Fold this protein.
Amino acid sequence: MKQAKDRSNGRSITLKALAQHLHLSPSTVSLVVNHAPGYESISPKTQERVLAAAKELNYKANFLARSLRTSQSFTIGVIAPEVSEGYFPMVMSGVEHNLRNAGYLHFVVSHEGKAELLADYPQLLTERGVDGFILINTLLKKPLAVPVVSISGLSEMPGVVNIVLNHQKATSLALRHLHNLGHREIAFMKGPPHIPDSRWRWDSIRKQAKAIGIRMRPEFCLQIRNNSWTPELGYPLVRDLLAKKPALTAIFCFNDVSAIGAIRAIVDAGLRCPDDISVMGFDDIASAAFGTPSLTTIRQPLVSMGETAVQVLLKRIQKSHDGGRNLLIFEPELVVRESTAKPHKPKKLRR
């Protein structure tokens, strides 16, 4: 039975006693304290009364009993390529906050682009009774028996809701910003092959560059191969490119972390950003505004994407969705800071 401890006398009380204390039905109190489907129909004032009394009496819901009654584990599986700095923590800040408020826990696993982990993790988490999945920048290999929300994965499998960025608009904002400043000789970074965003963003870059009139020189197209999610992601690519002493004026990086590495490589080559080479990032991670120079970037609403993923997934789990849209598109924003400027005559590189 669900129990709480009455702070006034130390006695335990049942859910029924809590309801009697509030002069409400046990079903009403249960809906509110368990955040169960249908609680929205209860007036906000009543919800506030119930939650205040539960807090006052130190009420703790018995999730084991709730799980047995509803045949749910109240846990969610989260699968991502990595769990390091940058993109992932911002998405997860939205995911964790909303899951916690709804009374759910979560398991987080990272596959690092390894095929065996991509195949095994969904099955392993399903066997542990998760009620649903949130996939972050991860492609689903086969349909699952529980609801799935995919952030930046774009799976067309049944039962999957996709949350994606408008990449066409994002790349257009970035390239038009560089083009309007006067940049024509631009290097481009393509993300790791196992990241779904890599292909879609690259296709969008190619399309928008053609529309704007920017030539994508093959020697200026850089492919990220490693699984590092530190500035090491971009540093060696730019270091090796600059060693060839190219006449480029800007670099459009795959993400902010790789852009930070690119800026370091520019400095180590005896150049300055943006005086000699401008750098454009992508994501607008928390540290993007605090580097020297601060990073011009494309902002993804990462926290909102994580929050929406939880809201959609819980509705699917609770079967309160209407079978509506399986594709939710979020809009990007250009954030102009210090790392981009009008191009100057390229400086001769240090030998």
